[in-house]
Amino acid sequence: MLRKRTLLLVEDDPVQQALIERMVSQLPYALTITASVEDAMAAFAKGRHEVVLCDINLPGRRSGVDLLRELKEQPNPPVVVMCTVDNAIGSVIDTMRLGAFDYIVKPAQQHELAGVLAHAAEQAQTIAAARIAERERAEHQEQQFARRRIAEQLVRRQNDKFSKILFGNMFTAFSQGRGVGSLTTLIAMLVGSPLAADQKNYLISKDILDLIFENQDAVNSMIEMFSEMHLLVSQGFALEATTLDTFHKMVRDLVVTMAPTIKIGGHSVFVSDLPPRFSGETLKLNIDYMRKALQELIMNALKFSPEESTILILVEYHFTHVLITILNEPIGGAEEISVGQRRMVFEPYYRISRVVREKYKTLEYGLGLSFVDQVVALHNGKVRCTTLKNYIKGEMAAENLVSFEIELPT
Fold first, then answer.
1. Domains of the chain
2. Residue 325 is inside which H or E element, if any?
3. What is the C-alpha to C-alpha distance for residues 280 and 246, in angstroms, rounded to an integer?
4. Which of 1, 87, 196, 332 is in the most buried spot, having the most CB atoms within 10 Å?
5. How would you classify residue 191: left for phi > 0, otherwise alpha for psi between -120 and 50, otherwise beta?
């Protein structure tokens, strides 16, 4: 069941209240209505609403602008959308400078209101995810030294285990799903094909030939992957100065390009907004290879998250580095990824799950994350895999989120 987003309306005009309430009733929002700054702050303190829709002109000595300032001072401020009339656009510009996300002109139109609220809810979700990631980073930093010592011990133990399971994983990778395993089976099936009348040729089913051609394409893709991995480790690549705005646009365009794949499982993929003040900052990239690496991580999130769930992509500028975080719910509420697995998932042929997801038409050889690791390393960056606690639904309802985080120097 789709969870309703919490929406707080601050509007003193009963007619406008009724109009907006009627339009919102058809949208996925749980609406709370107030008519003054004081009532709005009391309602927000109780409900911690994700989005606030606020009239600029409110009764009393405190206006919607005052409410905006007070909301932005809260520990976890909501996304605020301002309501105005045509002759108050100048005031709207002032509120945007103070941190308002967007505005609508009264009387609101159904399609306009739905669009603005949908974008505001998406922004609220990405901001909440960023807070989760930051909270978890702080907790991880506090325990980093102790964990490092534990990790070193675990890695030494896991190295022996990894050597034992490497060939088992290679066998699974090459024998399951599309590619070498299926192609070998199909060729074996040709042995039983009947001879033609000339006794020199075989009569082969078109279905078998179609499957052979399909799996031949998969083998060709595997060879291309091996070739690309070899080029990466033997030659590397050039890095060029790229603005953060260009990089952010590449991420958004990549999500658009992957839309047909995203629709396979009914997923939604949201990319966080980039604050305009950071758009001109630069980092050194090979943008083609970084696009391929991010595509691999998004594909990984699609394959290993429940159908119709949401995947979040956060792009954050931290002055000395840029963080790209891809968050998804694990299938079946998976438990926390162990310290040993956090590094081993990037090893060639390592697979946590041996399930082959045929519908995505991808190579299941356990090399995708190794490719990502190599690309990030050649950018002088770091890539991490971990689990975060999802506190969006509250402390008692915290669930795990799988997080892949790329850190690139600026």
1. 5-128 (3.40.50.2300), 143-168+236-409 (3.30.565.10), 176-222 (no CATH)
2. strand 321-328
3. 9
4. 196
5. alpha
Q: For residue range 363-399, what is the model confidence (pLDDT) as tens digits?
A: 555 577 888 888 898 899 999 888 877 655 544 444 7
Assess contact for 303 and 312: CB atoms under 8 A. no
Cross-strand bridge partners of residue 6: 30
- How many helices (H) and strands (E) would you count in the chain? 13, 12
Structure tokens at 394: 């509250």
Distance, CA of 80 to CA of 143 (rounded, Å) = 36
pLDDT at 119 (0 to 100)? 92
Query: Distances from the Cα of 182 to the Cαs of 109, 189, 203, 216, in angstroms?
Result: 56, 11, 20, 9
pTM over 0.85: no
Q: Respond yes or no on whether the N-terminal peptide bond of residue 330 is cis (omega within 30° of 0).
A: no
In order, the DSSP letters of 247-264 are: HHHHHHHHHHHTHHHHHH
Q: What tens digit of pLDDT does each residue of 355-367 get? A: 445 566 555 555 7
Structure tokens at 28: 């996925």
Distance CA 128, CA 323 (A): 16
Q: What is the spatial distance between Cα 284 and Cα 226, in angstroms, rounded to a whole number?
A: 25
Residue whose tokens read 């009947």:
194
Residue 352's φ and ψ, nearest 5 degrees, are -70, -40
Other Cβ atoms within 10 Å of 391 Cβ, number: 17
Q: Kindly tell me if the per-residue pLDDT of 171 is higher than 50.
A: no
